[in-house]
# Entry
Amino acid sequence: MCAVVQRKRSAFPLSRQKRILHDGLRDGTTHSNQNEITSAGKISRSRSQKSCGGSGWSEEILTTIPKKSRNASRSTLQKATLFYFVFVMYAYTTGGPFGLEDEVTTSGPGLTLIFHLFIPLFWCIPVSLVAAELTTAIPVEGGFYRWTRAAFGDFWGFLAGWWNWSASFLLGSAYAVLFTDYMSFFFPAITGWKHYMVAVAVVALVAWVNVRGIKMVGVVSIVLEIFISLPIVALCAIAATKWRHNPFSPLIPPHTPSFQVFGVGLALGLWLYSGYEQLSSVAEEVDNPQRTYPRALALVVPLSIATYFLPTLFSLAALGNWSEWHTGYFSVAAQTIGGRWLAFWMTLAAMVTNLALLNATVLTSTRMPSSMAEDGYLPPVFTEKHPRYGTPWIAVIVSSVIYGLLAFHTLTQLLTVYVWLRIGVTVLTVLAAGRLRQKVPDLARPFRIPWGRAGLRYVVIAPLVMSVVALAGSDPFARHWGPLAVGLGPLAYLASRQGMAKLK
# Structure
């Protein structure tokens, strides 16, 4: 049955309200208790209007949503419940501690552990709160891209989508490189061009899987996460019985300039705690996202912190050899602490983790060019589906080719540049929350950022502070290539606008 919603008088004039709904929210970014604009040109007061289809959107707004997004919201396919979605979210945002090892040597063991206690307060927790509020208010395909577009207009919305898609190139390459790094524990001869070819082969395999439409679902995520978590738990348990050293000593590497320790280490930390807003793009595939998404975040964020902090703490306490840590070192630590059986299990878990993360990156990254193509910013070919498998195969292949081209870089090089793009997307996302509070104050928000105005300031200011520190402390490679990657966004927007003008 259709729910009856009481309308309140808007604080915004009619012309601005119409512009907000048409320009910013036309892609499905409002709910049924939005102010009603009557045909007589007035905003009705204390008038009830029915919202159809159980979607929570008025008919006037529903007609402005692209057909593909509208069909997705009415899909009869089985949707993920809280139990399954928690595992899917954990698999996408965390998976395991693999990849943080360089943080220990570049920032020092003490600062690394402190990072994992404080970065969540300035990064993933505020971003999670923003994602929870906006996903429950605006659960549409495209997520943060359409939130930003609704809040700030076409230009900034385009940048959010473009920067996110560009960041996925670096992220996908990083997972392929990290998979190969751990594989070299079994096959030490995989170096140089052999390392690159293995990484490219992994990308090609995942691309083939995604084109055929084979993807991870909740049940598979549960099985994989249990398989991945067990060797980590075993490592922590055995290492706790061999505690010999102070894991916080030294705080930073000796003879290292104080501010330099924030470079690679902080970039890796931000990478590890990023991605919580990404799953907003699949909100329509989650059962009751207004309730499920914030509850999943409340469970996954603490799990993520524990996944990174505890194995690092116990391994450092048992071994004390912080200066020997490098990418893939958790396999070495597992062998030293528990023997070859644990090293084998840990290495296999790391490889499975990165393969799953690469698969998830391909799946989620193909949604962004599809949404942008629907809005006319990218060529329509990105919306095409495979004639047999029904997958966005053009977007999959284009993204995967770029992953392969970038896979010759090291993990730290890829991720330090990735952080520049991720910071751009994250800053726009948190600012969109504040802006939408002003533009559409009557928008239904089943979950609201707690603590009133103080809470809203927290979720905006904390990521901004962390972003400034991370960018200022970037290593030379990131300072050279990061601004270039960010600067390509406005150029791509101008090219897109010119292309749209020619088509008209």
In short: The CA atoms of residues 173 and 406 lie 6 Å apart. The chain has a mean pLDDT of 80.
